[in-house]
Amino acid sequence: MRKVRLCLKGLLYSVLFLLAFLLLYGLSSVLLSRILVNEKVVPEKSVTLYLLSNGMHTDILMPLTNEVFDWQKVVSSQQVQDTEAPYHYVAMGWGCRKFYLETPTWADLKFTTAFQAVTGQGGTLMHATFYEEIPSGAERVSLEISKESYSQLVEHIKQTFVLEQGRGVLVPTNAVYGTSDAFYEAHGRYHLFFTCNSWTNAMLKRSGIKACIWTPFAFDVMRNYQK
């Protein structure tokens, strides 16, 4: 009987610890996502970017090529299924390898995949999606930034890629989301405190663009740029 009580007591403590952790995690996100950095920077509005969101994940949409940088030097529209389309934009996202390749929909999510992701065991990939025009059906916000900030953003995103002779290392897979996207090897660890949305926020923050101190959530990233 004593062993049963000890087990129940241990279970209770575990549940209370988990609840306290989730509460602290949520409060930290609420507070830190509302503290902005680079907010007073008034850039020369030379380059227009977009942030895209599906509610859970964010991508940075950029010109495929402009006077600052040509992304075809790193990724290639010839590495997607539809190689004939006249692409003008590319969206970059970073995330958990197992999520990207093994969870095409939330119905496919497995406990092991989620556990490995939040504990930093799932590996990471870069996801590049090419667009002919700015997608109208996606949730999006626009950002006007300077050429200098865009140049910094390009460098930070490039550093996330595993590069060979300056080009991203393609991941051969059929687990793409459509006919205009591809996956590439990436640096970094995805975990509970640095998610795909934390990466988006970090890329902007490190480039001198308005961002928050920290957030793991897509809606916090998007809210900071809604007019």
Task: Walk me through what this model shows.
The chain is globular, with a radius of gyration of 20 Å. With 227 residues, the protein is an alpha+beta fold. The protein starts with a helix and ends with a helix. It has one domain. The strands form three sheets. It has a six-stranded antiparallel beta sheet. It has a two-stranded antiparallel ribbon with strand order 1-10. It has a two-stranded antiparallel ribbon with strand order 7-8. The chain has six helices and ten strands. The model has no long low-confidence stretch (mean pLDDT 90). The protein is 33% helix and 22% strand.
Our estimate of the beta-strand percent is 15-25%
Spatially, the strands of the biggest sheet line up as 6-2-3-4-5-9
Shape: globular
Q: In whole angstroms, how far apart are the ends?
A: 62 Å
| Mean pLDDT rating | 90
Number of domains: 1
Order of helices and strands: HEEEEHHEEHEEEHEH
Key structural traits:
227 residues; alpha+beta; six-stranded antiparallel beta sheet; two-stranded antiparallel sheet; 6 helices; 33% helix; 22% strand; globular
